[in-house]
Design a protein that fits this description.
With about 500 residues, the protein is an alpha/beta fold. The protein has 3 domains: about 170 residues, 3-Layer(bba) Sandwich (FAD/NAD(P)-binding domain), CATH 3.50.50; about 120 residues, 3-Layer(bba) Sandwich (FAD/NAD(P)-binding domain), CATH 3.50.50; about 140 residues, FAD/NAD-linked reductase, C-terminal dimerisation domain (Enolase-like, domain 1, 2-Layer Sandwich), CATH 3.30.390.30. Helices cover about 30% and strands about 25% of the residues. The protein has a 6-stranded antiparallel β-sheet, sandwiched between helices. Strand 16 and strand 17 form a beta hairpin. Helix 3 packs across helix 8. The radius of gyration is 25 Å and the shape is globular. The protein starts with a strand and ends in a 10-residue tail after the last strand.
Length: about 500
């Protein structure tokens, strides 16, 4: 049996954990079943954004006709775009080579399986050789997730692609002439934007009554209107069967409400219906690690599993599948593994963006979530067309693509959520993220000083901590898109607050 001080499963954010162990002179093992860098680098956020940006430019080039600029679109250079995509994915080769040269580190490329709480075996990708058992004094699970494939009749026989296979063996030599996307969430919205801009006839199918259902209903509405100008959109539709038809792939849809059936077809099918846990591959059932009902690993506020000295970070815990979240978890996990004073992982202000068109950004909770949590709230909304820069960019009141920022605050003016749809949404939301995380370490807790680092942020906030008051007391560059977000607080409207008891 090979004994390690630290074993890490997964080479995404897990690389940070390995580096921390190596810096401390530990004997380490890293296990990865795909490519070094995992989802974000090799089949997710980074290569997809290389595809997204040209699509953004195409959409903007068509939008600027409205402001008097006529640009002639002559098509795309798919080979050049693809070369740039793969230049990013292939960075993993140098990373792989570098890891092999590190002392105190054993790299295993293959599937890890638990055979006990602290023991694993690895089936190598290269030749199916089984290595093990490997025993770790400390183990970090950063094994990510994989595409969830719904039970559609005939889907395995007909074939399909996912975000994993797209950035792999099924990467197309040129954009498809037609594409059906099954799913209406983040991944589907981004790929629908990419290929519809590139000239593919895109059809998007969603079981729910709206697209990007994690967002505010008003945001879903504006995305749906813009999508319908550029592609076919089917909502409340369930894909129940797939067939081949003269070289095309036919999908039979069933209306969720009426049960009426519709047939659509395209050259290819892209499934983007969500993510599932990899714990079945890891054989977690051979440990005392507890899972939730969907199969994700349960962790406490310190990122600890139900087995001592085993932690879990990233997509594997089923909480917010974003690399920036995993990076922060890695930092906190490192602290909690090696330092006496533990830190809490706080998820109250996890931001994200959907790089579709129009772009979407999100931090905190929605209006509906705030009401369910029994907050007394104000909301405020401000449209791009209401500021000079927005008008200069071609956004007029009543336009179907006139985006907005929506702010949700409680009675103390603490920001609970910020939601944006429109140009540069990912940039515009970021100051709200900073505000929501600001001002939380300026006072000590009487009689609890020794536990200050592990108390929730809101337990020791400054009076203005997390509020919008710094915006109110600041100058905003004019004219700029910052006014869309900065001026939103002038539109505060009570939702479930008795206005008689409110003083402006």
């Amino acid at each position: 049996m090979d004994l390690y001080d630290l074993i890490v499963i997964g080479s995404g954010a897990g690389l940070s954990i390995i580096n921390a162990g190596l810096r401390r002179g530990l004997k380490c093992a890293l296990i990865e079943n795909t490519k070094i860098g995992a989802t974000c680098l090799t089949r997710g956020c980074i290569p997809s954004k290389v595809l997204v940006y040209p699509a953004d430019i195409i959409r903007e080039a068509r939008h600027v006709n409205k402001i008097g600029v006529n640009l002639k679109f002559k098509g795309i250079d798919w080979d050049l775009i693809s070369k740039r995509v793969w230049s990013q994915i292939n960075e993993e080769k140098e990373m792989h080579k570098g890891l092999l040269e590190i002392k105190n580190l054993d790299l295993f490329m293959g599937n890890a399986e638990f055979i006990g709480n602290y023991e694993l075996k690895v089936t190598l990708n290269k030749d199916n050789t089984i290595i093990g058992p490997l025993k770790g004094n400390k183990i970090v699970i950063a094994s990510g997730g994989r595409a969830l494939i719904p039970p559609i009749k005939g889907i395995e026989d007909v074939g399909y692609i996912t975000s994993e296979s797209f950035f792999g063996e099924k990467y197309p030599k040129k954009p498809w002439k037609s594409l059906i996307l099954i799913g209406g969430g983040i991944i589907a919205a981004e790929f629908a934007h990419i290929f519809s801009a590139y000239g593919t006839e895109v059809t998007i199918v969603e079981m729910l009554p709206r697209l990007v259902s994690t967002e505010e209903p008003e945001i879903s509405s504006i995305v749906e209107r813009v999508f319908k100008k550029n592609m076919n959109v089917y909502l409340n539709q369930k894909a129940i069967e797939v067939k081949l038809n003269n070289g095309m792939k036919k999908v039979i849809l069933e209306d969720i409400n009426t049960k009426e059936r519709t047939e659509i077809e395209a050259e290819e099918i892209f499934i983007a219906t969500g993510r599932r846990s990899n714990t079945d591959i890891l054989r977690i059932e051979n440990t005392n690690i507890e899972l939730d009902k969907r199969g994700w690993i349960i962790t406490n506020e310190f990122l600890e599993t139900t087995v001592n000295n085993i932690w879990c970070i990233g997509d594997a815990n089923g909480l917010y599948p974003f690399r920036h979240k995993a990076n922060l978890e890695a930092r906190i996990c490192i602290n909690n593994m090696f330092m006496e004073q533990k830190q809490i992982m706080d998820y109250s202000s996890v931001p994200w963006a959907v790089f579709t068109y129009p772009q979407i950004a999100h931090v905190g909770i929605t209006e509906e979530e705030a009401i369910k949590k029994e907050y007394k709230i104000y909301i405020a909304k401000n449209r791009y067309s209401s500021v000079a820069k927005g008008f200069a960019m071609g956004y007029d009141e009543g336009d179907e693509n006139d985006g907005f920022v929506k702010l949700i605050v409680d009675q103390s003016y603490r920001i609970l959520g910020a939601h944006i749809v429109g140009p540069e949404a990912a940039i515009l939301v970021q100051p709200f993220v900073y505000l929501m995380n600001s001002g939380f370490t300026c006072t000590s807790i009487e009689n609890n000083i020794e536990r200050e680092d592990i108390l929730p942020k809101t337990a020791y906030a400054c009076p203005e901590g997390g509020s919008f008051l710094p915006i109110y007391n600041s100058m905003i560059i004019h004219p700029s898109l910052n006014e869309v977000t900065g001026w939103v607080i002038g539109n505060l409207t009570p939702v479930n607050i008795d206005i008689q008891h409110h003083h402006s």
